[in-house]
Amino acid sequence: MSTLTTVIEKAAREFAQTIIGAVKESSLQELLALQGVAPRRGRQPQAKAKARKKIKWPKCKASGCKKNAWARGKGYCGEHAKTAKAKK
User: Fold this and answer.
1) What pLDDT digit, counting tens, does each position of 13-23 carry?
2) Which of 15, 23, 65, 85 is most buried, judged by most C-beta within 10 A?
3) CA 81, CA 67: separation in Å to the nearest integer?
4) Looking at beta carbons, which pairs linking 54-63 to residues 24 or more positions away fall under 8 Å?
5) Distances in Å between the alpha carbon of 67 and those of 73, 74, 76, 77, 85?
6) Which runs of consecutive H residues, i.e. helices, occur in the chain?
7) How far is CA 7 from the centre of its chain?
8) Residue 79, SS3 per DSSP
9) Residue 70 has what DSSP assignment?
10) Cβ atoms < 10 Å from Cβ of 60
């Protein structure tokens, strides 16, 4: 009975070594094909980000000016804020 056990152990060891050798020699694409996974080509597409809400900046108080208001210009763009301060 011990000879049958040793023969089975030897056959299993040889089988495992053959499988490990085949896996080491094969490429990644071959291994993925065995699993049924298609090989990747290039980068994966990224998930689309949500469109951001567009910010409406306040416009300059000066008549005819279409520039954005300057944060420290008290409602005026940078150019008109300088002249408004000069008038005061």
Assistant:
1) 999 999 999 88
2) 65
3) 12
4) none
5) 12, 14, 9, 6, 18
6) 2-25, 28-35, 78-87
7) 53
8) helix
9) P
10) 20
| Whether the model pTM is above 0.70 | no
Angle among Cα 78, 81, 82 to the nearest 5 degrees reads 90
Amino acid at 49: A
pLDDT tens-digit map of 25-84 = 988 888 878 887 666 677 777 778 788 888 888 899 888 998 998 888 888 888 888 876
CA distances from 41 to 2, 27, 29, 44, 62 (A): 53, 15, 11, 8, 56
Residues 6+ apart with CB under 8 A from 32: 38, 39
Q: How would residue 8 be classed by pLDDT, with cut points 50, 70 and 90? A: very high
Alpha-carbon gap, residue 88 to 76, rounded angstroms = 14
Q: How confident is the model at residue 12 (pLDDT cuts 50, 70, 90)?
A: very high
Q: State both tokens at 30.
A: 């071959």
